[in-house]
Amino acid sequence: MKQVLEFEKPVLKLRDEIDELKRKQASKPSPAIAIEISKLEARLIELQKDINSNLNPWQRVQIARHTQRPFMLDYVKLICSEFVELHGDRHIGDDNAMPAGFAMWGDKRVLVVGHQKGRDTKENLLRNFGSAHPEGYRKAMRLMRLADKFQIPIVTLIDTPGAFPGIGAEERNIAEAIAYNLREMMLLKTPIIAVVIGEGGSGGALGIGIADRVLLMENAYYSVISPEGCAAILWKHREHAPEAASALKLSAQDLKQLGIIDGIVPEPLGGAHHDHLEAATNLKQAVLDALAELESLPHDQLLDQRYQKFRKFGEFTEG
Amino acid sequence: MGFFKKRSVDDLGEKKRDMPEGLWTKCPSCAESLYESALARNQRVCANCGHHFTQSAPERIAALCDEGSFEELDAKLDSVNALGFKGYLDKVKAYQEKTGLGEAVVTGRGNIEGQPVLLAVMDFRFLGASMGSVVGEKITRAIETATKERKPVIVFSASGGARMHEGILSLMQMAKTSGALARHSEAGLGYISVLTHPTTGGVTASYATLGDVILAEPKCMIGFAGPRVVKETTHADLPPGFQTAEFMMEHGLVDLIVQRKDMRSTLAKLIGYMSKTKVAA
After folding, report:
1. Domain boundaries B55-277, corresponding CATH code
2. For the whole model, what pTM was predicted?
3. Which of B1, B175, B208 is closest, CB to CB, to A202?
C-alpha cells in the first residue's frame, strides 16, 4: 500500500482531481476542461512549493523514512550502468542490509556501499529494515580495502535507522565493527564520498560515514539518536518526537549551518519519492562534482584533509 | 547512540554511597554493610565479595599513577550549548558542582611504575559520562599529545553513550577520537582501553573498543545498545550474563578481566611490551 503523509494529503487530493479531469478530457475533450486542468496544475505546483518551504524537521524525518523513497539499490539502478555486487565478510556471513559492489558511476569506476531498506514485509525481513549487523560493517571494510588497493573511489549511501541492537549483533561485537571502520576509513588512500540518502541513524550511519565529502539529500536527516529515542529519554514520551526533531538540529539545513556537512543534494519538489529519476540525476551529478574535486589530490593531502575535517568538530570554551 | 539510563547517576552517586550518614555502604551484590572509609581504602571494592563499586576519576588516577606524577591537561575546557538545547548548561553546571569535575573525563600525563603515559579517565557520575564536544576534544588532545611525545595512551571508559544535548556534534566525537587513534597507531604506539561499569553506546562504538589491548573490570556492563533496547527489539530473553565483561571476553572482545587491585601492575606490564625495546625491570 502506498504510504500517505498527513501534510501531503492536500497535494494528493488535488492530483486526484487533475487525474479525474484528464480522464474526462480523454473521453470527451473540451477547451473548458483543458483550461481547468492547467489551472489546477499551476495550483498544484504552488501548493507543493508552499508545503516544501514550510516543512518542519519532523516532517522531513517522515519524508526521509517514506517507503516510496528511492533506496540505495534504486539509486544504483538509476545511476550506474554496471553494478557487480559482492557478498560476505569472509568470516560469519553476508549482510543483506548492507549491499556493496563495484559500479560504473557515469564514466567513473567506484565502489558503492550502503544501507538497503525494504518496501514490504518480505523485503524488510531480507534487509532487516536497513539495520546492519557487524557482518555488514566488516563486509564494507573488506571491500573498501579492495577499492583502496586498486585506487577506486568509494561512494557510501547511508540510509539506516541505526545499527541493529540485537543479541547476535552484541555477541559479535557490533560496537567494535563500527569503531574499526571509523579508524580505518581515516586511512584509506582513495577518495570517499558519503551521502545520507534517507536516515542517518547514529553510529550505524557513521560506520560508513567517514569521508572526504559528506552530503545530505535535501530531506534526509543525520542524528545522534532518533527523535523518538530522544523524546522517550528527555521528554519521557515518544509523542514528543516532533519537538525532539527540532531540538536535535538534524535536518540538512541545520547540519549545513553547523558545518557538519559539505553540501545538500536537491530533491524534486515535494521529496524524492515523487520522482526517483530526478533525485537520482541530482545525486549522480553531486557525486561526480565531488569526485572531480578530490581525484587529483595527492594521498597525503587527501588523508590530512579528511583528518582535519573531523578533527575540527565540537564546540566548547577554553577559559 | 544516546543510551542513557534515567536512573543511572542517582543510582551510583553520592546519595547511595553516603547512607547512612556517610559511614556505611551496603554492597549491592552481597548485601554486606561496609565501612565507607574501609571501602575507600580498598579502592571501592567490596572486601567480602569483590564487587567493584563505581570509582571516581580522581580516585582512579590516584590509585594508578606514581605519586605526584599526574599532571592534568585541558582542565579548563567547558561545554557550550551549541544546539540551544533547553536547560543543558544548567545540567552541566549542576554536575560540576556535584562532582567537583569540569567534565565527564579527566586527562593528563602521568607515570605508571615509572613509565610515562597519557591517561584519560571517564567519570560516570558526571551526566552518565556521556560524550559531548568537551569529552571528545580532551580525549583527542590526549591521544594527539601521546602521538607527539611518542607515549602510550590509556583510556578508562565508562559512559551512557553520546550526549544527545549536543546532537550531531556528539556523534562526530566518535569520528574525531577514532581518527586520532588511527594516527597514534600508525606511529607505532600502543593504546590500552580499559572498560569499566558501564561502557555503552557511542563510546563503545569508538575509542573504547579500539584498544590494541582491551581490559575490563570484573562484571562491568559492556554493550552497544542498552539491555532494555535489545530486549525490546528482539522480544527475546537475554542470555545469562549478557553484556557483562565475562560475556564479552567469552565472545572475543575483551583481552583480559583485571581486578582493580591488579590494574596498575597489569598496565605497567603491558606498557612494557608496547615499545620496540623492552627494558628488563
Report:
1. 3.90.226.10
2. 0.94
3. B1
